[in-house]
């Protein structure tokens, strides 16, 4: 079941982000990861439209939208491959239409997911805070 983010979800979403981050972003520095985690409750989550996937009354994944951009899509790794990520992106497409997302070039898990969904690379740049190359992917409304 999907529902809008509530402040009470914050700690659990940060925990999901940490665990999913280990799978998708093992190349990121501890310093960068720590800073993002610190910024999540006060900067990232309050400034995004976030939707949470709930199973047995517990968050297991979330998608954060910044207008037509997916700012975050993270699932508890125990729930990868069960269609939840696709359902969250489907929900975002219904709300926003055409979407774009940035994904690190080295994030094989994320790149595969977005490729299978139908996103295509439209640009790339050096993401200075992380020291990594980031790809900009787009999905045409359809």
- Secondary-structure element pattern, one letter each: EHHEEEHEHEE
Proportion in helices: 25-40%
End-to-end Cα distance, whole Å, is 24 Å
| DSSP E strands, number | 7
Structural class: alpha+beta
Uncertain runs are none
Q: In one word, what is the shape? A: globular
Query: Could you name the CATH class?
Result: Alpha Beta
Question: What is the strand arrangement across the widest sheet?
Answer: 1-2-3-4-5-7-6
CATH architecture: 3-Layer(aba) Sandwich
Mean pLDDT: 94
* Main sheet characteristics: 7 strands, mixed
Number of spatially distinct domains: 1
Return Rg in Å: 14 Å
Strand content: 25-35%
Oligomer: single chain
The CATH topology is given as Aminopeptidase
Pfam families: Acetyltransf_7
Keywords: Acyltransferase, Transferase
GO molecular function: acyltransferase activity, transferring groups other than amino-acyl groups
InterPro entries: Acyl_CoA_acyltransferase, GNAT_dom
